[in-house]
Amino acid sequence: MNNLSYAVIGTGAVGGYYGGRLQQAGCEVHFLLRSDYEQVRSQGLIVESIAGDFMLPQVNAYRIPADIPPVDVALIALKTSHNSQIHTLLPKLKPNGVLLFLQNGFGIESAVEQHLKKNSPQQQNEKTLLPDILGGLCFICSNKVGPGHIRHIDYGRLVVGAHQAAGQPCEPTLRMRKIAKDFTCAKVPTNLTNDLPMARWRKLVWNVPFNGLSVLLNASTDEMMADSNVRSLIRALMEEVVSVANSWGEQVSPGSDRHLDNSIVDIMLAHTENMLPYRTSMKIDYDEKRPLELAAILGNPIIAAKSLNIATPKMEMLYQQLTFLNVANKPA
Amino acid sequence: MNNLSYAVIGTGAVGGYYGGRLQQAGCEVHFLLRSDYEQVRSQGLIVESIAGDFMLPQVNAYRIPADIPPVDVALIALKTSHNSQIHTLLPKLKPNGVLLFLQNGFGIESAVEQHLKKNSPQQQNEKTLLPDILGGLCFICSNKVGPGHIRHIDYGRLVVGAHQAAGQPCEPTLRMRKIAKDFTCAKVPTNLTNDLPMARWRKLVWNVPFNGLSVLLNASTDEMMADSNVRSLIRALMEEVVSVANSWGEQVSPGSDRHLDNSIVDIMLAHTENMLPYRTSMKIDYDEKRPLELAAILGNPIIAAKSLNIATPKMEMLYQQLTFLNVANKPA
Lengths: 332, 332
Description:
2 copies of one chain form a homodimer.
Chain A: E1 5-9, H1 13-24, E2 28-32, H2 37-43, E3 45-49, E4 54-56, E5 60-62, E6 71-76, E7 93-102, H3 108-119, H4 122-127, E8 132-146, E9 149-162, H5 174-185, E10 190-192, H6 196-216, H7 221-225, H8 228-252, H9 263-274, H10 281-287, H11 294-307, H12 313-328
Parallel strand pairs in A: 1-2, 1-6, 2-5, 3-9, 6-7, 7-8, 9-10
Antiparallel strand pairs in A: 3-4, 8-9
């Protein structure tokens, strides 16, 4: 069985690391770049990693998506705040090619699907179907420390599942198994899930409090965990996310076991206590004066909560505070 | 009828302005100072004021409370964060002398009363009663812009009421009427209230959202009012305060009309929209790296809410966030 071919759309901390690993393992990989294009085209990628440093002196670098040859898998490693431009950023796909969104948040795939339907040329819309959409959750701490220079400092695991329009679970396809095999061979341990939405909710249990509060409190994970008031607040926010997630699961699949166990809150708190001190991705975005991923992390979950009649007063407050800071946080 | 004599305990933006006005109008006033003592003892006070600038080249300045001659009224214009030291800061009082706390927040007087009972010498405790405790709400925008230099930029009105141990309303005493007359003659319009606790709750409806959020969002009143998300949050916080206030009123005086009308929220929002842009006192404290008045503004109201079984999820979140920032906000 041959490896699949990949395009990395957004060669930053996540795309640069995963794409670099795939190329290092022998896959055909094409990298779409913007600000780092010149550097990466001439000098390649440097990856410092707890799983082993490596350099790729030569990579396939592109400025324009249309220049990328057709691939089996487009890895979308952009911030969700760029998803409204996604129709201008996709490469051509081979037959049965898929889009794999390596992004956090809820409602990512549905929003992208609707967006692509609306923004595809009319004739294409009638004759061709959209490619399959997959979602990937990246359990990784990595940063881009310079142009074409990635530093992977902790974790690295990937969880991949398929998007279904109605939010139903579904068995992994053969294509997904191949992707998982490529990643795992490339030192990226990858699990397949048949319940992508619940996996997204589970990750939000952590992301909502830690990403959001890290910006408001100008604090790293260890500083927040050391304060008993903030711990209480983190717990309360986590419980709100769990309650929305479980109502959502019950609504989409009544009587099923699609729910998060309440023990997840204690488990995540204990886990975070043992983590290396960590500056969250939202805090990094804020410090770098980039737009915050508020719709995916907070906005969509709150919309879901409202439609389910679940009260989320603290998530709402967090969202309202962060939207203000996001607007005020303009580059000088 | 002679004027009363006054001691100003804490000669800052509020104490310096009100004490200065009283002296300017002919009252006997004694000022307790700390960092500004030398300056004020030798150079007096300078007051710039929308109601008319004035200078007091000579004032009675003290470093030590025991040096102040007995007075009729001690005006406590310290931050509530100093109230735990109040027993060391009071001057001697003449017979029927009173303490008037010019501070924001709920539960100020009860806390002080308990503190003074606990910290008075035993023999005194048996023979003498505590002085009457009054509370004053200062509707004023003023800042200390330098040692002994006060700038009064907007408003100025004072509302004074008497503290009753059980939180009951009570008629103004003769002593209170004399105080109100002194202040009003000194260009400080002063109203007496027979319901100090509800007046305190009313002021908190504004202070809770604007003081708290100004610190978290690094914003002035006009910036917060201009953002629709923050306006929604301000409204929600105000509604929480109103709901605690009204439950408190109903518990202390069942069937009475001790409540805030819900229209207060719209009125205060409209009023704030027409105010000059304003940096709140809590924001000034934060910027100056002084302790924040969290117990009086948020902690005590939340304790009251809990004992009344009123949910205040957003006030709690605000308190938890601010306690973290308060601890982290140490002088460099």
